[in-house]
Amino acid sequence: MTLKQLISQQTEAIFPGVVSHYYYLHQHPELSYQEENTAQYIADFLEKEGIPYRQNIGGYGILAWVKGEKLNNGKTIALVADMDALPIQEENDIPYKSQNDGVMHACGHDAQAASLMGVAKIIHNLRSEFSGTVLFVFQPGEEKSPGGADLMLKDGVFRDFTPDFVIKQHAYIDLPTGKIGFHFGTITASADEVHIVVKGQGGHGAIPHTLNDTVLTASNIIVAMQQLVSRVRNPFNPMVLSFGKFIANGATNVIPSEVVLAGSMRCMDEEERQKMLQLIPVIAHSTTTAYGCTCEVNLPEGYPSVFCDEQITEIIRRQAIDFLGENNVGEFPKRMTADDFGFFSQQYPCCYYRFGIAKEGQKVGALHTGTFLIDEKSLQTSTGFLAFLTIDAMKQ
Question: What is the mean pLDDT of the chain?
């Protein structure tokens, strides 16, 4: 029996269990850094399967591992899945609809985690087939800064292991079930939050010469920030700086003494990112000074870009062709979205690929919306292929 046949057989056998895990996780979503029940559910599964693990790493993070039983030393490969959900009210009318009001798995992290649970079971069942160690990282807090990946790394998730490379897969609404997409190099943007509070002497809107117009000042800060993008940024490096929050709690005839701005900066180049992080406070303070105001600028540490190692990604792409067929393996475009998997890709060779979740002939609700829902059959691909590539890589 070939490895492909063996993995396909194993996947078929455990598939009902993977779907059951997915149903449970979808029904019981938890927000970033609150994944206590989710982590306990996964820990109970690992306990039942006899798979060793550590809990409470960087919050509710879990690291499990399976060591191959063949005698010669082999690789160490880490597989990552997120656990957290989003503050969204689910609109789907399904039996396993979210039971937590205002919280929903609207990004596919439930599918990721359920798939990784299935992969852990398969690899544990087949541990006599390979040498080396497979690490299973169940990560909290991907959706919210400072990022569970960073917290787990700082908390020593790999203190007892040194991964040769790290892999993460993510649900993708723009591909049908059964297909997988890859991209090489930088695939997602960095993400940094920008928080600015403008302060001045507020007062009556009819006598602006007696006060500091904080609203006008804040407006000019936003305009100046856009000129950073258009005139200072290297045009060969994509960048987005968007402000979605502008709170001036005055009235028709009242200029408030404080205005709050909040936005997000996305970059595809780390050098450009660091340059902009230095310039944002300079522009903000210079603008407020010109209008007689002051400001506070807060730039919390954000997520770096995700970088896919070209050699590792090409190997995995070829494995996908072997397992799924060439017609089912393609590319996905770069996006200005972000993923804290970038913290892993800063330290280890990494591959981040996407698996299709769209049922043929049906429209999938957009990511991060109340109608997002995967085709359950996609879990067969996400489980089977990840198990196949891991054991195949161990054998090479």
Answer: 96
